[in-house]
Specification:
This protein is mainly β. It has no helices and 11 strands. Strand 5 and strand 6 form a beta hairpin.
């Protein structure tokens, strides 16, 4: 099927997370979804800028057993590598959550407090 990640692809893969908040509590699962050109094939996943795995589906579930952050990226077949998103996992009693997606100056920032 060839290499799914195309540095010269016309579209950039888009990585989204559900829930779209960080940090998340241990051991909650986060669903990452990779959208791209719609070409059939395998999706590539990158963890902290290193190749991690290939999947037939365009989504994966991630969780951690210990607190910490990781950067995730994906590559949809025929598309370029997605911008990274960083997920933090926390075992605190209370967390102040922010959206995972990147914000630009002037965007409204919604904060969530969860316990």
């Amino acid at each position: 099927a060839g290499v799914p990640c195309h540095p010269t692809g016309t579209q950039t893969s888009q990585l989204t997370s559900d829930p779209p908040w960080t940090p998340v509590f241990l051991p909650e699962k986060v669903m990452l979804t990779c959208q791209g050109s719609g070409v059939p094939g395998l999706t590539e996943w990158y963890l902290d800028e290193q190749f991690w795995q290939r999947t037939r589906s365009d989504y994966i579930y991630v969780s951690k057993k210990h607190p910490g952050n990781n950067s995730y990226q994906c590559c949809s077949p025929g598309a370029r590598l997605s911008p990274p998103i960083t997920l933090s996992f926390s075992n605190d009693w209370l967390v102040l959550q922010v959206p995972v997606r990147a914000l630009v100056e002037g965007d409204e920032l919604l904060l969530r407090c969860r316990g």
